[in-house]
Write a structure and sequence with these properties.
mainly alpha; 3 domains; about 65% helix; globular; O-acyltransferase; MBOAT_fam
């Protein structure tokens, strides 16, 4: 009978045992394998101290810029809207009234479409919501900010009503084919349902939405205070910092002084970034949050963590969920169902988005030079490049750096300078 042998174990590292008559004075210091805290092999360290330092440095740097700006220009803050003419206000009100009337007409057409096919009337009415405001802003509205507001309101209502008509048309097709299912059509074609859809913060129509139990008055009040504070800060940054920087960039651009242009671009990038972040917060978090709470709209996912995007494509999918959902639902997926490849569908969507960006910026400024269009088109190769980097090195943050550099340094600030110069040249303010 053979005896079972105990499994062998690796010998443990032995530390010299002190004898009773002698104790070691110099005990071992290096007893384990460890990594430097800044090494990628190290466990996740806490960088809270460095974050505090960055916040402090950012505060000190901006405080210096504040003092320098006030020494150089003094206070430039004025009342919002002081340079808007009365004629612009009258024209804007008329356009808004026209858009409201067109929206009500869409509801009437949809009511008639339950029994009669009038698709061409619906299409003409929706197209008019884009074409008429574009023509009026181009020919009658002088103030660029007011023109942008009119076109954004027009585009929002257009996208909402296109979704409204397409979804109801699909419901009619299902009804005509006598497919079983609980749809609720045509009972949904009523005034209450229509007004509710116009008010809820989404561009995609559906017969029912997830709802919350009640309206929280405290939540609404906090969002209103944050919205007003953000808008006042945007006005302050525009008047005191962005406008002087843009005006001072005209001479270097005319003289083609590249170092000075770069200096102006970098200086504008700071105020442009702050303004854009405040606009994002005020609109997506405050404004849409207020309407969501008042209408008890349950889905509050208006944006995702786009700031962590490691490729440009992820940013465009996450920063504006309402528009992304509309484009995917009413453009991308229908094209895919027709057998068009995913890449071609993305290109078509970006072409349409590029055209709308050019309209929203070029028409109010009366400068159609294609800068906004090209800025969007350039996103296509950037998406491909950053997507390739992400596939090769999934843990790399290079794509995130490319996104921030292209968006903050070379994107918005450069477009602002180019459109401002074009506006100045068109108004013969420089030779």
């Amino acid at each position: 009978m053979t005896r079972k042998r105990k499994p062998s174990t690796p010998p443990a590292s032995k530390e010299p045992k002190p004898t009773s008559s002698y104790i070691l004075k110099y005990r071992p210091v290096h007893t384990k394998v460890s990594h430097s805290l800044l090494s990628p092999d190290a466990p996740s360290p806490n960088f809270r101290g460095f974050i505090n330092l960055m916040i402090l440095v950012l505060f000190v740097a901006n405080a210096r810029l504040v003092i320098e700006n006030f020494i150089k220009y003094g206070s430039l803050i004025g009342m919002p809207g002081r340079n808007i003419s009365g004629r612009d206000y009258v024209v804007t009100i008329n356009v808004v009234v026209y858009l409201v009337f067109s929206g009500l007409l869409s509801f009437v057409f949809e009511k008639v479409a339950v029994r009669v096919r009038i698709g061409w009337l619906i299409a003409v009415n929706c197209l008019g919501m884009l074409v008429v405001p574009m023509f009026v802003v181009w020919s009658m509205v002088e103030h660029a900010g007011l023109g942008i507001f009119v076109l954004m309101f027009s585009l929002t209502l257009f996208m909402k009503l296109v979704s409204y008509h397409l979804v109801n048309n699909e419901c009619r097709m299902i009804r005509d084919k006598k497919i079983d299912g609980e749809m609720g059509y045509p009972d949904n074609i009523n005034v209450k349902n229509f007004i509710d859809f116009i008010c809820v913060p989404t561009l995609c129509y559906q017969l029912e939405y997830p709802r919350t139990d009640r309206v929280r008055k405290g939540y609404v009040l906090r969002r209103v205070v944050e919205l007003i504070s953000s808008l006042l800060m945007i006005h302050f940054l525009l008047e005191q910092y962005a406008t002087p920087t843009v005006q001072n960039s005209l001479k270097p651009m005319v003289e083609k002084n590249v170092p000075m242009i770069i200096e102006r671009l970098l200086k504008l990038s700071l105020s442009s970034l702050y303004i854009w972040l405040l606009m994002f917060y005020s609109f997506f978090h405050c404004y849409l949050g207020i309407f969501a709470e008042l209408t008890r709209f349950g889905d509050r996912e208006f944006y995702l963590d786009w700031w962590n995007a490691r490729d440009v494509g992820t940013y465009w999918r996450q920063w504006n969920i309402p528009v992304h959902s509309w484009l995917k639902r009413h453009m991308y997926l229908p094209l895919r169902r027709r057998g068009i490849s995913g890449i071609m569908c993305q290109i078509v969507v970006f072409l349409v988005s590029s055209l709308l960006h050019e309209i929203a910026v070029g028409i109010p400024t009366h400068v159609i030079q294609g800068w906004a269009f090209m800025g969007m088109i350039i996103q296509i190769p950037l998406i491909m490049i950053t997507d390739m980097i992400q596939r090769i090195r999934p843990e790399s943050h290079l794509g995130n750096y490319i996104f921030w550099m292209s968006f903050v340094i070379l994107g918005q600030p450069m477009c602002v300078l180019l459109y401002y110069r074009g506006w100045y040249v068109k108004n013969e303010l420089i030779n």
